[in-house]
Amino acid sequence: NLSLDDIVIVSEKAWRTGGSKMFIEVDKQVSVEDLVRGMIVQSGNDACVALAEHIAGSEEVFASMMNQHAKKLGMNDSNFHNATGLPAEGHLVTANDVALLGKAMINEFPDLYHFYSEKEFTFNKIKQHNRNTLLYRDPTVDGFKTGHTEAAGYCLATSAMRNGMRLISVIMGTESEKARANETQKLINYGFRFFETHKLYRAGEQQVQREIWKGEDENISLGLAEDLFITIPKGSYDQLEANVDIPSLLTAPIQQGTQLGTLNIMLNGQAVIQKPLVALQTAEQAGWWSRSMDGIGLWFKSFGNDE
Question: pLDDT-based confidence at 307, cuts 50/70/90?
Answer without folding.
Answer: very low
